[in-house]
Structures are given as structure tokens and as C-alpha cells.
């Protein structure tokens, strides 16, 4: 009986618990009690199994981008203030999109190489854009302040940072070496100005002394010393905002509607070191390139070969390196063609060097000569070019010839440099600006002139087209006054043109330069 009571009590208690749960459900749902209606079981998720989460898009690092411009854009770090200078240059870049297109084409072989060098030093990526501001990525750029190459080094600063400059080679135009030198210089400047990159970049343009003085002057006057408050030359005051504006338009090119031609974000060039002097035509043949293609990648070499005493390295397209190395080895590491020449009566080493378009030092080295003395019949080994110099279309002589041949306003004259000539004296003689005269001839007004050098002069005078320059050989019985009378010029002109003393003695066979108006001259 007791047992039955226990069972009954247990059932009653259980029934109360179930009924209570059902009542709560009814109140909450207003539905038929659970106990009265069978409910279909709902599958449950195991506690150990997680629901799949949406995939997070992979963000590619700058180095993984397809376009090197995007690689740069993602790492630009200099502040972009909203000031009139930035707006001015931003608007200029947007107004002239062809400039960016031209720059991108020139930069294509070199930009990846430069970006990697900048990244390796943990420098702002704006630095990789400096060649656009400096030279528009023209590897042959030369300013009338004597600055050369992508990074526009002047001779003294180039030498200071290890860039050799001689007849054969100008390291300021060596893209790889000049980039290293420019980054060395910028790192030095950044340290000098306590990590202030705007000061360092400004000093790269105008010199550290000028920027340091501007900072000291502001300190004395209690003025701010940030770049934007410094009293600097107009060129430098424009230089920094021009660079910052350039970075801004490249970074936000889609926002501004600017099309920047893509450049593959992968190495385009590799440096090879033959360790021998090489004729550029032969090197181009080994690599399967044209001479002009090779020269465009290696603009530091002024003439037909790499430098005899080095450097001898070459930048080549990556896909041409194996072929170059194979052909070089196949030809027993031959880099030059050598001719044997026997010294003749009247020869000098300098005349022989000039004839073969080389230098005295090269001939001395090739023939182990300690002096310039040579004797008749002596054999000389002379390195010679595979091609005529005129076929090296991007060599220094050819670039100069193209520049001098360019058509300009006025009448073209040719002046042969004489002893004592300078740009100043020649410009006065022809009544032209000496800076313009230097520009016409691809030089700086401070460059040294060589006797016999040919200069182009463009005379805008209305009568210039009637003027001809002739060389007159003095005959027996001539005098300055008789020559002047014959060609309807003045004795003072003859004296000035030929740098003579007024009462100078002249003799038969001597040559004089005359600039005569053919409409007035009756000379024969």
C-alpha cells in the first residue's frame, strides 16, 4: 500500500510540473497546450560545429599590386595641406594630363627599380616621384645650371656622392648609381634637419645651407620654422608643393578623373657586369637590342663604349640577360674591336686619338705607354667602334648635333671658338644673350669652351639673313684697312671678330673671320 502511494505521489508531482510548463506556453503563445498537440522536433546545431562566416576580402600589400603607381600610392605619407600652392599645382597636373602620360612612358623601364630602392631605406614614397619634378623622367635631361640626369645632380654634388664624370662616362645619368647617390643625399639631409622630410626635400633643390639659414632667420624673428613659413627662393618654394600635389593626384586619380598609364609592378631591368670595356654596338648585338635601345637604358655612356677604366656595367631588360651572358661567353668575353696602326711621320698621340674618336689615355693604356712620345713605324693597338659615331644616335655628340640642328627663330650662324673666347665675349660679338647662347649649344654658361669647338648662334636681327660668315686668307700686300674696304666692313669689326690689337701686324697665310652683309659687299 505504501508502495502504491509513493508511485501515485510521484505521478501527481510530475503531472503538476508538466501542466505548469504547458500553462506558461499557452500564456506566451495563445496556442493549444503542448501536451495536447504533438510537436515536430526541430533539428539543433551541435555545440561543437560553428556556423560559416562571410569571407573577408584579401587586402593586397603594396608590393603585391599589379600597377607600380598603386604600390606608390598606398605608401605616400607626406601631409597634403589645403593651401593655394598645392591647389595651383594639382590643377596644373589635371589641366595637362599628357604630361603624366609622357612621364609614365619614360618612367616605365626605371620606376620599379627606383621604388624598390626607396622602400629598402624606409623613405617616404614621394621620393620615388622626385624624378618627375626634377627631370620629367628624361634620363638625358641637362639644365643650364649644369644639372644632369633623372635626379639632376650638378657636377660638384655628383662628385661628392661618388658619381664619376669624364669623357667616357657621366655617373649623373647612370640611373642605378645616381638613384643610390640621390637617396644617400636625401638621407643625409633628413638627418641634418632632424627627420623633417619637407626641409630635406627643399634642401635637395636649393642646398642645405640656404634652408638652414632660412630656419635660423625664422627662429631669430620668433616665426614658425616649418617649410610653409620659410623664406626660400621661388623655385624651392614651388618645388615641395609641386611634389606633394603630384602625389595627391596620383593617389586620387580616380577621384580627379586622371588617367595614369599603368606600369607593371615587377622588375624590368637587371644590372650585368662584364668587367671589360664594351663597344655599345657589340653589347647591343649580344643582348638582341638596337644600339639606341641599349643607350636609352644606359645614358651615362657618352660615346661608343663603356669607360676603359670602368664603370663597365649595363642595365639590360631582364629577358635579355641570359642571351647577353651566353653571347659574351661564346665570343671569349670580347668587348671591343682592336685595330693595329703604324705611326707615321708627323703623327702625335692626340691626333691619332682624335682621328679614332678616343682619348690619349685610352691609347696609353691599350699600349702600356707611360708618356705621349711615339716614334715613326711604332705599332699601336687602337680600340675602335664597330660603327661610325653617327650611328650611336643617343651618344653625347649626336645629342649635341641634334640640338644644334634644331630650327629656331632667326638666322643660324656657326662660330668657331678661339683662344680667349667665352660665352660672354661671343654673345657680345653677336649681340645675343649669353645664357641663350649656352642653351642653343646644350651647355651651361659656366662650361669651359675648347679651342676649335663649333657653336651655333641664332641671330634674330632683321638683317641677319643677309649676313654670311667667311674665312679670309691674307694675301701678300693685304692690310686690315684694305680687307675692311674690300668687304665693306670696319677695321674695328675685323679687330673685334678676330681678337686682334688695333695696330696688329698681319702676314700672308693668316686666316681671318669676317661677318659680311652680302647685299653691301663688293668683295671678291
From TrEMBL:
Region entry Disordered, spans: 39-59
Matches recorded under CDD domains: LysM, MltD-like
Keywords: Signal
Record bears the keyword Transmembrane: no
Ranges for domain LysM: 339-382, 413-457, 470-514
Membrane listed as a keyword: no
Compositional bias annotation for Low complexity: 47-58
Entry-linked SUPFAM superfamilies: LysM domain, Lysozyme-like
A Pfam family reported for this protein in Swiss-Prot or TrEMBL: LysM
Entry-linked InterPro entries: LysM, LysM_dom_sf, Lysozyme-like_dom_sf, Transglycosylase_SLT_dom_1
Protein name in UniProt: LysM peptidoglycan-binding domain-containing protein
PANTHER family from the UniProt entry: LYSM DOMAIN-CONTAINING GPI-ANCHORED PROTEIN 2, MEMBRANE-BOUND LYTIC MUREIN TRANSGLYCOSYLASE D
Superkingdom of source: Bacteria
Signal peptide interval: 1-22
Amino acid at each position: 500500500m505504501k508502495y502504491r502511494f509513493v508511485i501515485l505521489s510521484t505521478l501527481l508531482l510530475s503531472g503538476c510540473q508538466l501542466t505548469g510548463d504547458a500553462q506558461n506556453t499557452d500564456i506566451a503563445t495563445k496556442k493549444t497546450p503542448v501536451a495536447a498537440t504533438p510537436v515536430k522536433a526541430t533539428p539543433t546545431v551541435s555545440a561543437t560545429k560553428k556556423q560559416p562566416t562571410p569571407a573577408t576580402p584579401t587586402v593586397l600589400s603594396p608590393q603585391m599590386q599589379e600597377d607600380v603607381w598603386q604600390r606608390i600610392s598606398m605608401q605616400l605619407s607626406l601631409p597634403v595641406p589645403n593651401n593655394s600652392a598645392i591647389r595651383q599645382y594639382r590643377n596644373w597636373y589635371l589641366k595637362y594630363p599628357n604630361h603624366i602620360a609622357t612621364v609614365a612612358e619614360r618612367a616605365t623601364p626605371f620606376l620599379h627599380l627606383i621604388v624598390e630602392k626607396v622602400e629598402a631605406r624606409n623613405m617616404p614614397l614621394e621620393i620615388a616621384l622626385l624624378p618627375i619634378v626634377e627631370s620629367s623622367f628624361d634620363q638625358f635631361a641637362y639644365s643650364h645650371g649644369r644639372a644632369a640626369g633623372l635626379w639632376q645632380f650638378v657636377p660638384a654634388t655628383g662628385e661628392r656622392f661618388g658619381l664619376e664624370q669624364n669623357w667616357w662616362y657621366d655617373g649623373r645619368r647612370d640611373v642605378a648609381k645616381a638613384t643610390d647617390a640621390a637617396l644617400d643625399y636625401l638621407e643625409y639631409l633628413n638627418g641634418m634637419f632632424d627627420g623633417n622630410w619637407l626641409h630635406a626635400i627643399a634642401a635637395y633643390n636649393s642646398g642645405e645651407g640656404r634652408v638652414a639659414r632660412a630656419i635660423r632667420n625664422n627662429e631669430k624673428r620668433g616665426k614658425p620654422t616649418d617649410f610653409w613659413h620659410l623664406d626660400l627662393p621661388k623655385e624651392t618654394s614651388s618645388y615641395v608643393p609641386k611634389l606633394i600635389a603630384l602625389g595627391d593626384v596620383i593617389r586620387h586619380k580616380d577621384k580627379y578623373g586622371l588617367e595614369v598609364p599603368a606600369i607593371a609592378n615587377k622588375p624590368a631591368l637587371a644590372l650585368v657586369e662584364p668587367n671589360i670595356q664594351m663597344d655599345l654596338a657589340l653589347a647591343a648585338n649580344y643582348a638582341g637590342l638596337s644600339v639606341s635601345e641599349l643607350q636609352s637604358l644606359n645614358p651615362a655612356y657618352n660615346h661608343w663604349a663603356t669607360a676603359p677604366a670602368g664603370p663597365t656595367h649595363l642595365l639590360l631588360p631582364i629577358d635579355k640577360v641570359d642571351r647577353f651572358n651566353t653571347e659574351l661567353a661564346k665570343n671569349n668575353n670580347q668587348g671591343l674591336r682592336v685595330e693595329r696602326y703604324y705611326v707615321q711621320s708627323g703623327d702625335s698621340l692626340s691626333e691619332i686619338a682624335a682621328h679614332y674618336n678616343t682619348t690619349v689615355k685610352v691609347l696609353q693604356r691599350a699600349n702600356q705607354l707611360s708618356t705621349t712620345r711615339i716614334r715613326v713605324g711604332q705599332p699601336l693597338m687602337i680600340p675602335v667602334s664597330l660603327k661610325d659615331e653617327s650611328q650611336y644616335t643617343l651618344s653625347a655628340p649626336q645629342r649635341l648635333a641634334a640640338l644644334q640642328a634644331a630650327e629656331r627663330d632667326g638666322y643660324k650662324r656657326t662660330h668657331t671658338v678661339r683662344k680667349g673666347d667665352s660665352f660672354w665675349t661671343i654673345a657680345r660679338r653677336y649681340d645675343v644673350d649669353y645664357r641663350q647662347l649656352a642653351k642653343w649649344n646644350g651647355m651651361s654658361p659656366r662650361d669651359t669652351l675648347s679651342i676649335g669647338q663649333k657653336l651655333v648662334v641664332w641671330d634674330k636681327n632683321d638683317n641677319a639673313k643677309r649676313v654670311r660668315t667667311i674665312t679670309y686668307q691674307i694675301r701678300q700686300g693685304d692690310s686690315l684697312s684694305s680687307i675692311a674696304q674690300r668687304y665693306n666692313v670696319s677695321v674695328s669689326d675685323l679687330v673685334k671678330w678676330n681678337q686682334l690689337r688695333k695696330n696688329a701686324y698681319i702676314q700672308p697665310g693668316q686666316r681671318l673671320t669676317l661677318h659680311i652683309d652680302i647685299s653691301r659687299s663688293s668683295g671678291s
